[in-house]
Amino acid sequence: MAEHAGVSAKTVSRVLNDEVYVSAETRERVLASVRELGYVGDAAAIGLRTRRSGFVGLIIPDVRNGFFGLLTRAIEERLTPASPALLLGDSDEDVDQEERYLRLFRQQRVDGLIVLPCGAPSLPDAVSEIPTVVLDRTVPSVRGIADHVLPANRRAAEVLVGHMVGHHRLERVALVAGDRSISNIGDRQNGYRRVVRAAGLRPHVTDGHTTPDEAAAGAYALFRTLEPPFGVFTTNNRMFWGALAAIESLGLTVPRDVVVTTIDSIGEATVTGLRPTQAVVPVATVASRTMQLLAERTLDPTLPPRRVSVDLDVEYGTTCGCVPLTGSPLMVGSMPTP
Fold it and tell me: Would you state the pLDDT for residue 44?
């Protein structure tokens, strides 16, 4: 390599390690040789010398969920030259699977760790060893000891439910929810209950669902007891599609009979022709704040734990009626695979 570039071995080392005191011309000559020769460095040797692996570990709950895909992409786009590669683990909302990934990432001595946790026992140990940011949701074992970036889920739920109660004057608003033991789902449920209670309304709840089919069955049983018009707040995209399937099964229309709001990025519901009224986590902002906290924690491990709250973006669409439909009220269509 040095001979090909016409420089010393020390100069090659300085360029590959991005050190100073190398002229732009020399740096480019060395990098040109790297490209021409197809040079690949010895990561293990570099790690021993720099005490850095070059990896950031990310554990998400479900790779099939579009939101987590967007979040992964946003984090990857913000990796730094010091830790340029992302190791991805899918816990599938399973504590044992999360534990296996934590063990693997600790063995790999990742430079940083980003976790959307479900409660693996060794998570507090990982936090004490590795710069870590807990993202999107939390668990009791790391509250107060880890840096967090958490969307303001309760506030977003209050805005959406308050919109149905205050703006649309609905006296019946139902909740279709996932597992409230997951902190962000619990926060969204709490927001729903606070608004309904403050308005003096009766709560109508079906919860604990993990799939669209479960949500559809629970929503069908609940909705058949409600006289239209009524509102529905769903806690994520799977609950949203389950609710729409139940509405279709009952022969109801959106938004004439049922006003629907949700938290999660549904996008254009092209199967139905509807545009959801939704609160969306600003993925770019969350990723930026996460990487900022991770960098600061890496530079100064003695910093006290920080907690960053990120407001969700509320988008009003056709499912609540604030954006007019181009025609008659729509029956919902077939439910897509999320």
Answer: 43
